[in-house]
């Protein structure tokens, strides 16, 4: 991946129990968390939280039928800041990546691409 077009920001894990996952990572690794954020995307009510220090970890709650649905904690994605989201997503798809969720139709600015 070209480093001139984007910067890695975080890794994300989808988890069935946000509070439990926060507690486990705090106890095991000393991770300190920001305040959980609750929101809605399309029909999905979700909760997520970011670690306070780098390397940043995002935890997002499992929601049935959503891109974050899971029965057990799992790696979900690596987040990048991109100068131009459209160009970055197009470049990744042109390189053979498969878009499995595009938030732009919901007026958001991220996409999940399997590379």
Describe the structure.
The radius of gyration is 15 Å and the shape is globular. It has helices at residues 18-29, 85-94; strands spanning 6-15, 37-41, 44-50, 56-61, 74-82, 98-102, 111-114. Helices cover 19% and strands 40% of the residues. The longest helix is centred in the first third of the chain and has 12 residues, at 18-29. The strands form 2 sheets. It has a 5-stranded mixed sheet, with helices on one face. The chain has a two-stranded antiparallel sheet with strand order 6-7. It is an alpha+beta fold and 115 residues long. Strand 3 (44-50) and strand 4 (56-61) form a beta hairpin. The protein has 2 helices and 7 strands.
Shape: globular
Widest sheet: strand ordering: 2-3-4-1-5
Q: What is the CA–CA distance across the termini? A: 10 Å
The share of residues in extended strands comes to 35-45%
Q: What percent of residues adopt helix (DSSP H or I)?
A: 10-25%
Number of strands: 7
Largest sheet: 5 strands, mixed
**Mean residue pLDDT:** 94
Going by helix content, strand content and strand pairing, the class is: alpha+beta
State the order of secondary-structure elements, H for helix, E for strand.
EHEEEEHEE
In terms of per-residue confidence, which ranges show pLDDT below 50 for 5 or more consecutive residues? none
Number of helices: 2
Which value, in Å, is the CA radius of gyration? 15 Å
């Amino acid at each position: 991946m070209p480093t001139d077009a984007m910067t890695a920001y975080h890794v994300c894990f989808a988890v069935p129990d946000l509070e439990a996952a926060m507690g486990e990572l705090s106890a095991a690794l000393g991770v300190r968390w920001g305040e959980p954020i609750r929101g809605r995307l399309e029909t999905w009510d979700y909760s997520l939280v970011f670690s306070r220090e780098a390397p940043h970890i995002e935890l997002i709650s499992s929601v049935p039928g959503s891109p974050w649905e899971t029965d057990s904690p799992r790696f979900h994605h690596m987040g990048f800041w991109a100068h131009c989201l459209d160009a970055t997503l197009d470049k990744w798809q042109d390189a053979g990546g498969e878009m499995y969720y595009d938030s732009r139709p919901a007026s958001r600015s991220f996409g999940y691409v399997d590379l």
